[in-house]
Automatic annotation (TrEMBL), chain A:
Residue ranges of every copy of the ABC transmembrane type-1 domain listed in the record: 99-314
InterPro entries linked: BPD_transp_1_N, MetI-like, MetI-like_sf
Membrane topology, record value: Multi-pass membrane protein
Family, per entry: Belongs to the binding-protein-dependent transport system permease family.
UniProt keyword list: Cell membrane, Membrane, Transmembrane, Transmembrane helix, Transport
Pfam annotation, one family: BPD_transp_1
Localization annotation: Cell membrane
Spans through the membrane: 12-30, 103-123, 135-161, 187-207, 291-317
Protein name: ABC transporter permease
PANTHER family per the UniProt record, alphabetical: ABC TRANSPORTER PERMEASE PROTEIN (PTHR43163:SF9), DIPEPTIDE TRANSPORT SYSTEM PERMEASE PROTEIN DPPB-RELATED (PTHR43163)
TrEMBL record, chain B:
Primary localisation category: membrane
Subcellular location, record wording: Cell membrane
Transmembrane segments: 78-102, 123-146, 195-219, 240-262
Mode of membrane association: Multi-pass membrane protein
Domain ABC transmembrane type-1 span(s) in chain numbering: 74-262
Alphabetized InterPro entries for the sequence: BP-dependent_transpt_permease, MetI-like, MetI-like_sf, OppC_N
Protein family membership: Belongs to the binding-protein-dependent transport system permease family.
Cited Pfam families: BPD_transp_1 (PF00528), OppC_N (PF12911)
Name of protein: ABC transporter permease
Key words of the record: Cell membrane, Membrane, Peptide transport, Protein transport, Transmembrane, Transmembrane helix, Transport
Length: 328, 276
């Protein structure tokens, strides 16, 4: 247990540096954006030059860049991301309102891609070079080549427009007063297509990694030993080969979380899911740069947290990791 | 056996090479076969495909020739994909070489910056960059490269770490070569093969990111893009789904071609270097 704790502490310290760099980066982008918060405010409400001066002074925008960076960091420490001009509300509140939908979409899509992907990978990797292995491997490559947003549109055409089996978009039926299980079922039905579109793209990744990992493990001595012991093929595949090939996939789970968040931007906009990604697109359309950068910061924090969780899980799954990392 | 013939022996690689060759032909011949503005009105609006042989793939919502747009879109996709990947590979190998060769504090700083870029979802970063600086072909290329240079940087660093202990590096030091000269003239060229092996994956990812950006309306507004065509078709998805489906198929085939050809090249060179 202490090994895991030491590992966690090392990762936490590293993460804080990484997040600091992200914050400075977003601050620089914010500076590079034409106009500032006052300009955006004046455009939406109107006001004269005196008003502009007054607001700049009140919001601290007339100070030096370093002071403003310090103010920005200080505000962030108090979980204050600033005010969104488009929503006339604190950015933090807007983001927190949308975050659950994105998390729901991401977790479901990850479960789909990881579960189905590794299962199919085991199926393909159990008999390397067989017909089913080649078909699955080429099929997964094709899947990997499909843009998620286009797959989403095709799914809409087939299942929502032609067959009318599933809703075309949104997170739940509008103006419905469903509660409890009914509401959960309604949300689940709305999520089928977006989760499929997001999950199927990454499924290929896990399938291919599983398959490649198993190909490595097959060559190792302990597999030969298991065979010599006379274990059944099924048992060798599941208990020895697949189990050892599964570990790298867990690491991938953390690394992919950033990609998954990026992918959900487009998927959410295709299916009008009111999540973080769609919010990012709305921020771009409204030129609300502070909101956009707030979303980036929250996403970075989310990715860091997911990777920490994956590291902890990994330390539990593979006792060698904790020992090696703690000594390094 | 020559490398080329070995490449031709794998059916997947051949399929990939054929797709890529067709795509390059499309991109190069776009101005010859379809001179003039591909965004100009060419016929009646929403003409279905295979009706009028002067407009084989029909027209879109505004009456633009879909086939002409498809050819000109191939140009944008390929140009952006190749340029962004080249930029990402160049920046990545330079950063990775510097980090790996210098070690110590410089390594620590460069790798934390790499971590930071990997922590921010690259698509969100590209989105923010284009929306702050403004959409143009060059900006889209930079935006995509911003999120993709980290992979090559890590691979280059790992390779440099093993190369810098070799004898020829020590002898270069002994004859008094400048450390930067050693890093970039002796070490970097030898660290390149595993970095270049990533290029097909990076080109493919760049093409997909460009498509997604232009789908969200953040592509260069003066150029035809497949992503933009799909977004255009989306407005008439119920009545004319082919307008979104056709450019999507072109995208899938392109990315698949890049993957297959790339895998073929990596496999043949790996065999040649006795790594299999």
């Amino acid at each position: 247990m202490t090994r895991a704790l030491i590992l966690l502490r090392r990762r936490l310290i590293g993460s804080i540096f990484v997040l600091l760099i992200v914050v400075i980066g977003t601050f620089l982008l914010l500076e590079a954006a034409p106009g500032d918060a006052v300009d955006a405010y004046i455009v939406s409400t109107g006001g004269d030059a005196g008003m502009i001066e007054l607001l700049r002074h009140r919001w601290g925008l007339d100070q030096s860049e370093l002071t403003r960076l310090a103010n920005y960091l200080w505000a962030l420490l108090h979980l204050d991301l600033g005010q969104s001009v488009t929503f006339s509300r604190p950015i933090r509140d807007v983001i927190l309102e949308r975050l659950p939908n994105t998390l729901l979409l991401m977790v479901s899509a990850t479960a789909l891609s990881f579960g189905l992907g590794s299962a199919l990978g085991i199926y393909a990797g159990a008999r390397p070079g067989s017909v089913r292995d080649r078909i699955l491997s080429i099929g997964s490559l094709a899947l990997y080549a499909i843009p998620g947003f286009w797959l989403g549109l095709v799914l809409i055409v087939v299942f929502a427009v032609d067959l009318r089996w599933l809703p075309i978009g949104g997170i739940e039926a509008l103006a419905s007063d469903k509660t409890g299980l009914d509401r959960a079922a309604d949300i689940a039905i709305h999520l089928v297509l977006p989760v499929a579109a997001l999950g199927f793209i990454y499924l290929a990744l896990y399938l291919r990694m599983m398959r490649a990992g198993m190909a490595e493990v097959w060559r190792q001595d302990f597999v030969l030993a298991a065979r010599a012991k006379g274990l059944s093929r099924r048992r060798i595949v599941l208990a020895h080969v697949a189990r050892n090939a599964l570990l790298p996939l867990v690491t991938m789970l953390g690394l992919q979380s950033a990609q998954m968040l990026g992918g959900s931007v487009v998927i959410e906009s295709v299916f009008s899911v009111p999540g973080l990604g769609r919010l990012a697109q709305e921020a771009v359309a409204a030129r609300d740069t502070p909101l956009l950068l707030g979303i980036i910061l929250v996403s970075a924090v989310l990715v860091v947290v997911i990777n920490l969780l994956v590291d902890i899980a990994y330390a539990f799954l593979d006792p060698r990791v904790g020992a090696g990392e703690a000594n390094a | 056996m020559s490398r080329f013939r070995r490449f031709l022996r794998t059916p997947e690689a051949v399929a990939g090479a054929i797709i890529l060759a067709a795509l390059i032909a499309m991109a190069l011949s776009a101005s010859l076969l379809f001179p003039g503005d591909p965004q100009a009105i060419a016929g009646p609006a929403l003409l279905p495909p295979f009706q009028d042989w002067s407009l084989p793939l029909g027209t879109d919502r505004l009456g633009r020739d879909v086939l002409a747009e498809l050819f000109h879109g191939a140009r944008t996709s390929l140009a952006v994909g190749l340029a962004a990947a080249a930029a990402a590979l160049a920046v990545g190998s330079v950063v990775g070489t510097l980090a790996g060769f210098a070690g110590g504090f410089i390594d620590e700083v460069l790798m934390r910056i790499t971590d930071a870029f990997q922590t921010v979802p690259s698509f969100l970063l590209a989105l923010a960059f284009v929306s702050v600086v403004g959409p143009s072909l060059g900006i889209v290329v930079i935006a995509i490269a911003l999120g993709t240079w980290t992979g090559p940087a890590r691979v280059a660093r790992a390779e440099v770490l093993s190369i810098r202990e070799r004898d020829y590096v020590a002898s270069a030091r002994a004859i008094g070569m400048h450390p930067l000269a050693i890093a970039f003239r002796e070490v970097l060229p030898n660290a390149l093969p595993p970095v270049l092996a990533m290029s097909s994956v990076i080109v493919a990812a760049a093409i997909l990111t460009e498509a997604a950006l232009s789908f969200l309306g953040l592509g260069d507004p003066n150029r035809v893009t497949w992503g933009g065509m799909i977004a255009e078709g989306r407005t008439v998805l119920r009545t004319a789904p082919f307008l979104s489906i056709v450019p999507g198929i072109a995208l899938v085939l392109t990315v698949l071609g890049v993957y297959l050809a790339g895998e073929g090249i990596v496999e043949t060179t790996a065999v040649r270097r006795g790594l299999q």
